[in-house]
């Protein structure tokens, strides 16, 4: 049994009898004319199937204790095969997912109707969909649309959200998942090193972003975890700056927040270094405060701790430390985000809530920052941590961050 079958089995075991689960891989939205945005698979669908193609549907149900699983995919299309390449064949989908009952997606409605009629007699039949959506403004997902259609036709079903159940599983990473994150971090490091070697006054932030992209492509990594932040000077005080189009000046710091992926698993790393290769005294002073904040998180992160408590440690430290460095405004002016989030198939992985207690196998970020707009200084240092029973392992420890190491590296260009 491969990891995907195993996950489906574990999920079904947690569900009550007389229920069904439907998950959609998704479809790329159109961009303009006949051009679509790049397709990005629904991560929970991928987690349960290992498949990453458009318009696939996983249907599982459990009746009288017996579980059944089927997959619906687009049929092979000879014309499309000649124009854009062949779609995934049933045999391949079956081999990756270990689902043997594979049908074409046009059979989905009829199959669901048969299931609904069998289930009609069951009271309280539960139908689980992935109802995750980011905001009210977001367009309805295919899951939400299908669930609404089903509820209209079969008013006796109880709609339920599968996201929290899959989310709980996704939060605990297994060895394979951790190895993917390690590989994504390794590639990210190659990109950061090349950026450090390339940085110089007069270069545009966009060229720095391009250096990172080039290294990723060379390493055969097509997908980044998120849009790169490449910010110099005052732009580094904007948390999610994406314009990346200003010329870097002598004496400024450069902040990059970026990540490669491996097998859809993300790295999320920030490093801050001087454009000319040497920190000024003031930059070094602030940099070391952020580095200390990181150390505090690193030495406290362990199973049993809450993310909000990790953030509170940073806040307490900053409140005590910043006034010693002539930073006397409200802390919120200098630090306005949290220090951690989960990391995995999504960069901001399943949201367990800040009050959630960390468990061994969680992977989280450690990303304190300080943003001093009136001095043109923005510093964030971000590492990725694997939580263990006794502490944490810094998965990104190979990526240099000590000021001396950075200066030496940039000076020698090695
Ligand atoms: N790159 C976004 C973040 O660090 O959360
Ligand atoms: Mn980041
Ligand atoms: Mn992050």
Notes on the protein architecture:
- With 414 residues, the chain is of the alpha+beta class.
- Helices cover 36% and strands 19% of the residues.
- The protein has twelve helices and 18 strands.
- The protein has a six-stranded mixed sheet with strand order 6-5-4-1-7-8, with helices on both faces. A three-stranded antiparallel sheet has the order 9-10-13.
- Helix 6 (142-153) links the parallel strand 7 (126-129) and strand 8.
- It starts with a helix and ends with a helix.
- Glycine is lined by residues 226, 257, 268, 341, 347, 367, 382.
Quick one: biggest sheet?
6 strands, mixed
| CATH-defined superfamily of the largest domain | Creatinase/methionine aminopeptidase superfamily
Hetero groups in this structure are: glycine, manganese (II) ion
Oligomer: single chain
| Strand coverage percent | 15-25%
Helix content: 25-40%
> Uncertain spans, ≥5 residues at pLDDT below 50?
none
Number of strands: 18
CATH class of the largest domain: Alpha Beta
- CATH fold group of the largest domain: Creatine Amidinohydrolase
CATH architecture descriptor text of the largest domain: Alpha-Beta Complex
Shape: elongated
Distance between the termini: 45 Å
Number of helices: 12
- If strands are numbered along the chain, what order do they take across the biggest sheet? 6-5-4-1-7-8
Number of domains: 2
Structural class: alpha+beta
């Amino acid at each position: 049994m491969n990891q995907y079958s195993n996950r489906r089995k574990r999920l079904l075991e947690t569900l009550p009898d007389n229920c069904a689960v439907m998950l959609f891989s998704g479809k790329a939205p159109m961009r303009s004319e006949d051009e679509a945005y790049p397709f990005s698979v629904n991560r929970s669908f991928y987690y349960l199937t290992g498949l990453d193609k458009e318009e696939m549907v996983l249907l599982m149900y459990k009746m009288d204790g017996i579980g059944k699983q089927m997959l619906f995919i687009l049929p092979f299309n000879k014309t499309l095969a000649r124009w854009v390449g062949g779609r995934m064949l049933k045999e391949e989908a079956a081999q990756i997912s270990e689902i043997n009952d594979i049908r074409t997606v046009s059979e989905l409605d009829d199959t669901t109707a048969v299931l609904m009629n069998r289930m009609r007699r069951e009271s309280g039949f539960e139908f689980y969909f992935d109802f995750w959506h980011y905001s009210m403004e977001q367009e309805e997902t295919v899951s939400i649309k299908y669930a609404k259609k089903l509820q209209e036709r079969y008013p006796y079903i109880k709609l339920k959200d599968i996201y929290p159940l899959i989310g709980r599983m996704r939060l605990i990473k297994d060895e394979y998942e951790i190895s993917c994150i390690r590989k994504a971090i390794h590639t990210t490091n190659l990109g950061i090193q090349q950026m450090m070697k390339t940085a110089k006054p007069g270069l545009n932030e966009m060229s720095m972003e391009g250096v990172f992209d080039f290294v990723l492509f060379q390493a055969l990594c097509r997908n980044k975890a998120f849009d790169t932040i490449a910010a110099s000077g005052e732009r580094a005080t904007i948390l999610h700056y994406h314009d990346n189009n200003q010329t870097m000046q002598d004496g400024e710091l450069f902040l990059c927040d970026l990540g490669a992926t491996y097998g859809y698993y993300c790295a999320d790393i920030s490093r801050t270094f001087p454009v000319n290769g040497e920190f000024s005294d003031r930059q070094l002073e602030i940099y070391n405060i952020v580095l200390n904040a990181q150390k505090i998180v690193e030495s406290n992160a362990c199973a049993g701790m809450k993310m909000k408590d990790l953030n509170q440690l940073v806040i307490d430290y900053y409140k005590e430390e910043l006034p010693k460095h002539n930073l006397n405004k409200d802390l919120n002016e200098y630090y306005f985000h949290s220090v951690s989030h989960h990391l995995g198939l999504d960069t901001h992985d399943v949201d367990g809530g800040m009050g959630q207690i960390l468990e061994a196998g969680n992977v989280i970020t450690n990303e304190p920052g300080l943003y001093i707009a009136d001095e043109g200084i923005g510093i964030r240092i971000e590492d990725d941590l694997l939580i263990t029973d006794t502490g944490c392992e810094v998965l990104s420890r190979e990526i240099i961050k000590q000021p001396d190491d950075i200066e030496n590296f940039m000076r020698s260009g090695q």
